[in-house]
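Budget justification aside, the reviewers requested a transparent look at the raw inputs and outputs of the sequence design task funded under Objective 1. We therefore reproduce one unedited record. The lines immediately below are the structure tokens for a 81-residue chain.
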């Protein structure tokens, strides 16, 4: 795996908090930052994926699928009462 180096300027208070959290997690600051950044990239990518999927949908197709569902009362264990 090819790795890159990135220099980031942080306020002292954020650096201190980052160090505390990494220590508490039992990982290096680099590992902690990499995991945090990976989580953020994943969350943004997931949101983008769902936005793209939603753009492909249509109200008509949605209603067609709903019309295929039987109109019956839910079982007692599925009732909200």
């Amino acid at each position: 795996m090819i790795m890159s180096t990135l220099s980031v300027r942080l306020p002292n208070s954020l650096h201190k908090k980052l160090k505390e959290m990494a220590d508490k997690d039992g990982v290096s600051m680099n590992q902690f930052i990499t995991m945090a950044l990976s989580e953020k990239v994943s969350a943004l990518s997931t949101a983008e994926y769902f936005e793209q999927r939603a753009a492909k949908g249509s109200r008509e197709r949605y209603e067609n699928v709903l019309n295929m569902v039987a109109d019956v009362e839910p079982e007692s264990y599925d009732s909200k009462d």
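The CA atoms of residues 39 and 45 lie 10 Å apart. Helices lie at 12-25, 29-56, 59-67. Computational costs for records of this kind are itemized in the attached budget.
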